[in-house]
Amino acid sequence: MDKMEENGKEMGSVTSRLVAQVHLPKMFQVRQLFAADRIVPEDIPKRIRSYLVQEEYALKIKPGMHVAITAGSRQIANIVAITRTIADFVRERGAHPFIVAAMGSHGGATMEGQRAILLGLGITEESVGCPIKCSMEVVKIGANEEGMDVFIGKDAALADGIIISCRIKPHTCFRGPFESGIMKMITIGLGKQAGAQICHEAGFGQMAKYIPMFGRAILKRAPILFAVAVLENAYDETAKIVVVPADKIEETEPPLLNEAKALMPKIQVPSCDVLVCDVIGKNFSGSGMDPNITGTFATPYASGGLKSQRVAVLDISRESHHSGCGMGMAHATTRRFFEKLDFDLTYPNLITSTVIENARIPMVMKNDREAIQVCIRTCTGIDKHNVRIVRIANSLKIEHILLSEAYWEEAEKNPNLLIESEPQEMAFDKDGSLMDLGNIG
């Protein structure tokens, strides 16, 4: 053992001793109650087809055409069924569908990385019944209103038609009439790394301007047929499906975004001392954990969500493929998280988006117990024997969450919270890892 290793071990033991006596409160589970309108999964293909058989959509798909269907990097409810239904309909019209990875610089900005993301979401050639193309090669198709070059992926550019399949929801870094949705999928998703970089160069303070500006240029020059967009309810279920003609996207999407904002879930207590997020990942949010829920915004151009003094993130999702995007908004994490981290799969997206704050490394603690303890230990102005902790499995599924016993009386009085358990000690294994990590609910 060399001197550096010895010093590291000693430092680790000193750090552990500094937090060892921090009191961990008992936690109890609650169910958060939200509006629950949804389309049951078995009805989704029928609902999509009811739109696609209409002449304004069906007649755009002609025999022999090669039609690209977009697939992004997010964990969207029923995404395989939605994608398969669109592909099947295209084939039934005598055309040749294929899936194009439309996720900007995600997946380490590589073909292999983007294919792996789709695989993690269940999108394979077998599951959707058509080829999948993930090339990062782009072609310039023109310029926008300010003379900036406009690129889209070569696979999509060579298609006879493009169908935009996506979800509409609030963005994690800015506000505007077009956030995460159709226009962003056209501009950033289809743009691959090269197109996304140009759109992001002015920073998120200009994204509300540039997303529609680039989107309009692409709509004029690329063979986009129509968009199939979904809105989800607070339980991560499909609440609404719309099909929008290409020439109506610009006027139709902003009202749909307002609907999506109204459907968003939230943590039903407004603030806490420490937020614990078991797992973060690009499949949950472009920011690893959705700041619209967690309040962990990486830019000053958006706000909302839970207010907290400290944040602990404990693990990276398998579907995130070693991207640690989101760790920069945490104050502490675990060695398990750090050992899974791959900088080459994390940094390309952050460099492209210019939001490098999301890649800052938090304190790396030995295990889950110490990551939570150091957050409590470094909070100021709180009652550390009655600390207020909110714990979530991830930012996408927050129907069931854990609250520390300091919230018990508040939860009893809140009509949107249903208490599901008595307060219990946090259960750790011999290595200090939570025994129910990621399994709240």
Core attributes:
six-stranded mixed β-sheet, 16 helices, alpha/beta, disordered N terminus, about 450 residues
3D architecture notes:
The chain is α/β, with parallel strands linked by helices and 441 residues long. 33% of the residues lie in helices and 21% in strands. It is built from 16 helices and 16 strands. It has a six-stranded mixed beta sheet. A six-stranded mixed beta sheet has the order 4-3-2-7-8-9, sandwiched between helices. It has a two-stranded antiparallel sheet with strand order 5-6. Helix 12 (291-294) links the parallel strand 10 and strand 11. Helix 8 (182-189) packs across helix 10 and helix 9 packs across helix 14. The longest helix has 17 residues, at 3-19. The chain is globular, with a radius of gyration of 23 Å. The two termini are 44 Å apart.
The number of helical elements comes to 16
The helical percent reads 25-40%
Number of strands: 16
- Extract low-pLDDT stretches: 1-5
Separation of the first and last Cα atoms: 44 Å
Q: Which structural category fits the helices and strands?
A: alpha/beta
Topology:
Layout: H1 3-19, E1 27-32, H2 44-52, H3 55-58, E2 66-71, H4 79-92, E3 96-101, H5 111-120, H6 125-128, E4 132-133, E5 138-143, E6 149-153, H7 154-157, E7 161-167, H8 182-189, H9 192-200, H10 207-221, E8 224-232, E9 238-245, H11 249-263, E10 271-280, H12 291-294, E11 307-316, E12 332-334, H13 335-340, H14 343-353, E13 363-365, H15 368-378, E14 389-392, E15 400-404, H16 408-413, E16 417-419
Parallel strand pairs: 2-3, 2-7, 3-4, 7-8, 10-11, 10-14, 12-13
Antiparallel strand pairs: 1-15, 1-16, 5-6, 8-9, 14-15
Helix pairs in contact: 2-4, 8-10, 9-14
